């Protein structure tokens, strides 16, 4: 495909912006000597659930704030539906943002909070009330609309912040770690709700998170950030199964990244490779390999029961590898391997992925 580097799905700066959706070209941002974002190119078609994933400080929030217009770009351009908005004020862009701290007005009821944004749009009082009621229903909090924000739980406040953004029917909603303050259970409930709302409303969601599982669970596509740059853009399957770089392989899930030198000695491959721990099977060291398999002799250094899985730490001629096994049975039901056992760690050849860099 024109303009797409093989394997990375990274765009060139010269690629024509989308007529429907968000396009970013050559976007950079420096804070003094810190280059927070450097040369980012992205296309996000209208209606996509797109996540920006990366470790703390990798530049995700800065890109989001530049799309919203809260931060000026040092270089590059931002296009919304084909129109260059780089120099537009935030309120001139058809964009809404939901922040992690919710930013609700404390003295206003839930209903008033949600109606607030509609006031500026010169909509009649009755219509405002009807639209706000509908948005509050959408996040399933109709029974609480008379309450003040401090009378709600964190998760409920989060949903109101979302209703307040949704009521304006933006084409684009930016969400900066909106679930960061929630406990695990509520977070998982909200992930499902957010995804349903996005699918039904067809609003483009750009979602910032450092939680790889959350990004994979919710997104159509993910951009993986590292040190101000995008390392790869792809569907959850693509970035997990075909990581373009060792950083992406290591950031998404667990990995056994083997450098070219070691791979040559261990399995006769002259390139950096990755084998996911869940694809490695441990069998008796005397077993032989099938023609479609590869394997190494290993000693079990440690094991850990993780509930759904058991983790095995392996020593392979001085190299540490990890393998996981799904606990289909209760502990002790069948005899498993224990620390000190010699095993054959094997996997299908087709499950080895080469890592370009
Ligand atoms: P997090 O997940 O922690 O929010 P992030 O990936 O969103 O991280 P950014 O907030 O975009 O990262 O920050 C990127 C870099 O820019 C960091 O090194 C940060 O310290 C720096 N930075 C961000 N905002 C400013 C600012 N206003 N002034 C100076 N440096 C800043």
Automatic annotation (TrEMBL):
GO MF annotations, alphabetized: ATP binding; ATP hydrolysis activity; transmembrane transporter activity
Question: Residue limits of the ABC transporter domain?
Answer: 22-252
Q: Which UniProt keywords apply?
A: ATP-binding, Nucleotide-binding, Transport
InterPro entries given in the database record? AAA+_ATPase, ABC_SmlMolc_Importer, ABC_transporter-like_ATP-bd, ABC_transporter-like_CS, Mo/tungstate-bd_C_term_dom, P-loop_NTPase, Transp-assoc_OB_typ2
| SMART domains xrefs | AAA (SM00382)
GO CC annotation: what is one? ATP-binding cassette (ABC) transporter complex
PANTHER family in alphabetical order: SPERMIDINE/PUTRESCINE IMPORT ATP-BINDING PROTEIN POTA, SPERMIDINE_PUTRESCINE IMPORT ATP-BINDING PROTEIN POTA
Protein name according to UniProt: Unannotated protein
Q: Which organism is it from?
A: freshwater metagenome
């Amino acid at each position: 495909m024109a303009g797409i580097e093989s394997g990375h799905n990274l765009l060139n700066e010269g690629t024509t912006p989308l007529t429907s959706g968000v396009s970013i070209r050559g976007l950079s941002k420096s804070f003094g000597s810190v280059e927070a974002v450097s040369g980012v190119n992205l296309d996000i078609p209208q209606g996509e659930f797109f996540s920006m994933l990366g470790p703390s400080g990798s530049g995700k929030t800065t890109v989001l704030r530049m799309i919203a217009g809260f931060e000026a770009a040092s270089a590059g351009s931002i296009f919304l539906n084909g129109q260059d908005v780089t120099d537009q004020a935030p309120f001139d862009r058809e964009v809404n943002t939901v922040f992690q701290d919710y930013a609700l007005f404390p003295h206003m009821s839930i209903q008033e909070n949600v109606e607030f944004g509609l006031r500026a749009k010169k909509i009649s009082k009755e219509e405002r009330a009807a639209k706000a009621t509908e948005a509050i229903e959408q996040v399933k909090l109709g029974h609480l609309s008379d309450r003040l924000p401090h009378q709600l739980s964190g998760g409920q406040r989060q949903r109101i912040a979302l209703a307040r953004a949704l009521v304006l029917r933006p084409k684009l909603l930016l969400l900066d770690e909106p679930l960061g303050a929630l406990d695990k259970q509520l977070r998982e409930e909200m992930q499902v709700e957010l995804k349903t709302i996005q699918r039904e409303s067809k609003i483009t969601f750009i979602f910032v998170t450092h939680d790889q599982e959350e990004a994979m669970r919710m997104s159509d596509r993910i951009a993986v950030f590292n040190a101000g740059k995008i390392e790869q853009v792809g569907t959850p399957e693509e970035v997990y199964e075909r990581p373009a770089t060792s950083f992406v392989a290591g950031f998404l899930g667990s990995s056994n990244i083997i450098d070219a030198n070691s791979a040559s000695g261990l399995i006769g491959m002259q390139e950096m490779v990755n084998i996911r721990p869940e694809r490695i099977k441990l069998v008796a060291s005397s077993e032989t390999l099938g023609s479609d398999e590869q394997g190494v002799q290993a000693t079990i250094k440690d094991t850990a029961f993780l509930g759904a899985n058991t983790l095995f730490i392996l020593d392979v001629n001085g190299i540490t590898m990890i393998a996981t096994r799904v606990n289909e049975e209760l502990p002790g039901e069948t005899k498993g391997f224990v620390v000190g056992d010699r095993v054959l760690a094997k996997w299908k050849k087709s499950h080895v992925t080469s890592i370009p860099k």
